[in-house]
Structure formats: structure tokens, C-alpha cells
């Protein structure tokens, strides 16, 4: 995918310092408390070292990145009002048709700011909020401040601190008590400029007894220079609420994708992360759930597909802090053409969290003899009255299966794709229909590029 030509209203100089952070806050006309929050986060970012575990980040060009780029002066409320060159970029991603057919709300983010967002009136009438983060800060200041950075504070890790200092865009979603948003809310994020970082921040609050499914898709064009995507996502599921968060990430291979995602589930709440990772040169992403109160349930289902030049270090973290909580982790990874996938996970049960039930399943599929898959599971179980299961497997494409399918008229690529479809079926089943179709197409393309 190549970059679309684009004119930018504002592009701050490369590099990161106090002046840049203050200018970002000034351009967004933020209150003083947010400016101070950003500056405190910048100080934390500067003090924290790069992670010494996982993929090599030594080539990450932190001082050769634009930390704020704005394509448009104002967010557009109607798709017809979006300029043709930007509209062309997103029409290729299917947003207008997807909205008409499937979506309760849709948002598109180009570079650092949202350019278009709409929400069906029936949800607005019930008090649902689905706006970009800056609008949330401006129009719902008390609600925003009550929850912002309460799940992932700046000191959590170096890239959470970076996001906290320079965040732009992302979604603020608030679902009132008892409201069930029965169609997905959806957002796309796209990097279109070389040498830039994208730092959207998403906050979803589901009040007691509510339901929401949020879907984000990501893409980026190919550049000769690296770009950085470092998002923060915070989910808060109050008593009896249900949040499902689906990500399909397909960044180009020059992107560093370094993301922090975490949820808190209160009494009888359910949180589900459905996480697909297909692109980027380096990914470090570990969606997390804290099961805070009795009856809470968490599920993380993920896939990662890596080919030549890619390192996808993905996984999941679930912490059981309360008794009678339940969790399920299913991780599927596929490596081909010398790519490397890793599962890095944590399952933790605190003392006193009795009658916990938890399962972890990690399966890896290698499509050739020179790709690599690693598993780094961590289980910390500090309570005896629990039911914990863990299993891991690694396999290669079965020549007999391929020959059999080819004897039935399939090409080698189609036969391999069919086997891979079966391998990741547990993930695809969890997707909305239009995404399941897209994943199947993407897998077929991946197989055609690596077989024969």
C-alpha cells in the first residue's frame, strides 16, 4: 500500500521536548491540567529506559519523528464535506459502505486527529457518547477527567508515558447504564506521512448493565523510513457491563507498533479483547484485563502473522484480584518467510482469589524451516483453591494434508490457506461478518506471497 498525496495544515518540527508538548496542548486549546499532565508524562518518558526485553528497539528513531501532524483544520460531520484526496484514502478502506451497512458509528483518524465521526441518532438519544478524545475533554470535562489515565497512568511504561505526553485523537466512548449498543462502533487509524508518530488514545466507559462492541482497523502505506504507532487504550467495565474490543492491525512493515491496552472489569462484568496482528516491522502488544471484583470474566483471543523482516511480540495478561472470576486466553501465531512471532503472557491469581477458573492456550504454526516462534508464558498463582489450565503447541504445515487438498483441485497456495483458515478459525468466528471476510482474503494473499 502506497502513500496517498496529502497536504497538511500543521506539521510540528521533528523531535520531542517541552516546547513541542506545550505547542501540542496549545494547538488543541486544552485546559491547564492537561498541559501539566502532558509535561509530567514527558519527564517520566525521558527518565525511563527502552525495554531491555523483547524485540530490539535500538533503531527506533525517537528524535527523527514528527509528534504532531494535522491534515485538516476542523473535524467534518458529513462524509460529503471531507476533501476528495482524504476521502479517496478512506474509501479504499471501505468506510462509507461499511457505515451504511453495518455500523452504529464510525470514526476515521488520519495522522494525529480525527477527521470524520458520526453516530446514529438512536444511540445519541439514549445518552451514548462516541467522540474523539479532544471533543470528550472539551465537551464532557468532568466525566473525562474522572476516568482519564486511571487504568494506564503515565508511569506504567516508557511508551505509555510517551503517549500521555503527545496523545492526539482516538475515541472517547461512554455507554450509560443499561444501554446496549447492538451494532459495532468503529474507528480506523491510518499513518500517511513518513517520519511520523501516531499516538491516539482511546477511553471506553461502560456503566452498569451496558454493552458495547468497539472495532478498530489500522493500515499504513509503505515508506523507506520508519514510523511509530504508540497507542493507549483504557477500558472500564462497571458492574454487569460487557465490553468487546476488536482490533485488526495491518500496518506496513516499516512501522513500530508499541501499544498499551488494559481493562478493568468490576462485579459480574465481561471484557473481551479480539486482537489481530498482521503488519508492522516490530509489534509489542499485550492486551490486559484486571478482574477486580467477584463474578468478572475476561477473554483474550489473538492472532499474529509474521513474515520476512517482521517481529511480532504479542500476548495477553490477565490478573485475578477477586474470587469467583473466570478467564480464557487463546493465542494463535503464524510465522513464514523467516518471520518471528512470540507469545508473551501473564496469568496472575492473587492470594484470596479463590475459585478462579482460567485457561491459557498458545498455538504456533510455522510455514517453513527458517521462521521462528517463541513462547514466554508466566503463571503466578498465589491461591490453592483454583482451576488453572495451560497448554502450548507448535506445528508445521502437513505435507500430506496439502497433497490431499491439491488432489481435489486446489492450488498449493489455496491448500495452505485452507489449513491456515482452520488454524485461526477460533479467532475469525469472533469477528463481525465484514471483518471475517477481510481476514480470509488477507490470509489468502499472505499464502500466495509465500508459497510457490
Task: Based on the model shown, name its key terms.
12 helices, 12-stranded mixed sheet, 452 residues, alpha/beta, 10-stranded mixed sheet, 2 domains, single chain
Would you mind describing this structure in some detail?
The chain has 452 residues and is α/β, with parallel strands linked by helices. It folds into two domains: 276 residues, no CATH class; 55 residues, no CATH class. 25% of the residues lie in helices and 37% in strands. The protein is built from twelve helices and 24 strands. Strands 5, 6, 8, 9, 11, 12, 14, 16, 17, 19, 21 and 23 form a twelve-stranded mixed sheet that branches. About 1% of the residues have low confidence.
Q: What is the CA-based Rg, rounded? A: 21 Å
The low-pLDDT segments are 99-104
Percentage of β-strand residues = 35-45%
Structural class from helices and strands?
alpha/beta
Report the end-to-end length measured between terminal Cα atoms: 23 Å
Q: Give the beta-strand count.
A: 24
Number of domains: 2
Number of helices: 12
Major sheet: 12 strands, mixed
Amino acid at each position: 500500500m502506497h502513500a496517498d498525496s496529502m497536504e497538511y495544515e500543521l506539521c510540528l518540527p521533528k523531535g520531542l521536548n517541552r516546547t513541542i508538548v506545550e505547542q501540542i496542548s496549545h494547538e488543541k486549546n486544552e485546559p491547564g491540567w492537561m498541559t501539566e499532565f502532558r509535561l509530567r508524562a514527558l519527564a517520566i518518558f525521558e527518565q525511563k529506559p527502552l525495554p531491555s526485553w523483547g524485540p530490539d528497539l535500538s533503531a527506533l528513531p525517537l528524535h527523527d519523528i514528527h509528534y504532531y501532524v494535522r491534515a485538516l483544520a476542523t473535524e467534518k460531520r458529513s462524509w460529503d464535506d471531507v476533501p476528495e484526496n482524504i476521502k479517496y484514502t478512506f474509501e479504499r478502506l471501505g468506510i462509507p459502505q461499511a457505515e451504511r451497512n453495518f455500523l452504529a458509528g464510525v470514526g476515521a483518524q488520519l495522522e494525529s486527529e480525527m477527521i470524520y465521526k458520526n453516530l446514529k441518532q438512536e444511540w445519541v438519544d439514549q445518552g451514548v457518547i462516541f467522540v474523539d478524545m479532544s471533543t470528550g475533554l472539551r465537551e464532557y470535562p468532568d466525566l473525562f477527567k474522572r476516568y482519564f489515565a486511571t487504568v494506564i497512568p503515565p508511569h506504567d511504561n516508557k511508551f505509555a508515558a510517551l503517549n500521555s505526553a503527545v496523545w492526539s485523537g482516538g475515541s472517547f466512548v461512554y455507554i450509560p447504564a443499561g444501554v446496549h449498543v447492538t451494532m459495532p462502533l468503529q474507528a480506523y487509524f491510518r499513518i500517511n506521512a513518513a517520519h511520523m508518530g501516531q499516538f491516539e488514545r482511546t477511553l471506553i466507559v461502560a456503566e452498569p448493565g451496558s454493552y458495547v462492541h468497539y472495532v478498530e482497523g489500522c493500515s499504513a502505506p509503505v515508506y523507506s523510513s520508519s514510523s511509530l504507532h504508540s497507542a493507549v487504550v483504557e477500558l472500564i467495565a462497571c458492574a454487569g457491563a460487557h465490553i468487546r474490543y476488536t482490533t485488526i492491525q495491518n500496518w506496513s512493515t516499516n512501522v513500530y507498533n508499541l501499544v498499551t491496552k488494559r481493562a478493568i472489569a468490576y462485579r459480574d462484568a465481561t471484557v473481551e479483547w479480539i486482537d489481530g496482528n498482521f503488519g508492522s516491522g516490530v509489534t509489542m502488544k499485550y492486551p490486559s484485563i484486571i478482574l477486580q471484583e467477584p463474578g468478572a470474566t475476561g477473554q483474550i483471543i489473538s492472532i499474529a502473522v509474521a513474515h520476512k523482516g517482521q517481529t511480532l511480540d504479542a500476548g495477553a495478561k490477565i490478573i485475578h484480584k477477586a474470587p469467583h472470576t473466570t478467564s480464557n486466553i487463546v493465542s494463535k501465531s503464524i510465522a513464514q518467510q523467516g518471520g518471528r512471532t512470540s507469545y508473551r503472557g501473564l496469568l496472575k491469581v492473587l492470594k484470596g482469589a479463590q475459585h478462579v477458573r482460567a485457561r491459557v492456550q498458545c498455538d504456533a504454526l510455522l510455514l517453513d524451516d527458517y521462521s521462528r516462534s517463541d513462547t514466554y508464558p508466566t503463571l503466578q498463582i498465589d491461591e490453592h483453591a483454583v482451576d488453572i489450565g495451560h497448554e502450548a503447541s507448535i506445528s508445521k504445515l502437513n505435507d500430506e494434508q496439502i497433497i490431499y487438498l491439491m488432489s481435489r483441485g486446489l492450488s498449493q497456495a489455496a491448500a495452505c490457506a485452507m489449513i491456515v483458515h482452520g488454524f485461526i478459525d477460533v479467532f475469525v468466528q469472533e469477528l463481525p461478518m465484514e471483518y471475517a471476510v477481510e481476514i480470509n482474503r488477507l490470509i489468502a494473499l499472505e499464502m500466495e506471497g509465500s508459497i510457490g
